[in-house]
Amino acid sequence: MTLSLIIAQVLILTFAVLLTSYLLPGITVKSFWTAVLVAIVLGLLNAFVKPFMVFLTIPFTLVTFGLFLFVINALIIMLAGALIKGFEVKGFWWALIFSIILSLVEYLLEYLILPSFA
Prior knowledge:
- By secondary structure, the chain is mostly helical.
- The protein has one domain (3-117).
- The protein is built from six helices and two strands.
- The longest helix has 22 residues, at 92-113.
C-alpha cells in the first residue's frame, strides 16, 4: 500500500466523518483536524482492537448471525469518542447509527475517488 493511497483513505474517512456528523445531531466533531484525528484513531482501533473484540465475541456473533458486529462497531465509535477531545458521541444508539451511515458514506466516497489512485 503506497503512502498516497493511505493518505487518500484517511482523507476519505475524514470527509465521511464530517459529513456523517453533520447529518446526526447526536455526534459532534469540533473541527476538520478533529475529524482527521478521528479517522486515524478509528483506523488504528479497527486494526488492533476490533479483531480482539471480534474473537472474544464469536459465540454472540454466531448466535446473532453476525449482527453483533454492529454492536462492536458502535463500541469502537464510543471508544474513539472517549479518547478524542472534540469528538462527542451521545450514547450507544447514536454510535450505532453513526457507524452504519459512516460505512455507507465511506464506501461511496471510496468508490468514487479511489479508482483514480489504482
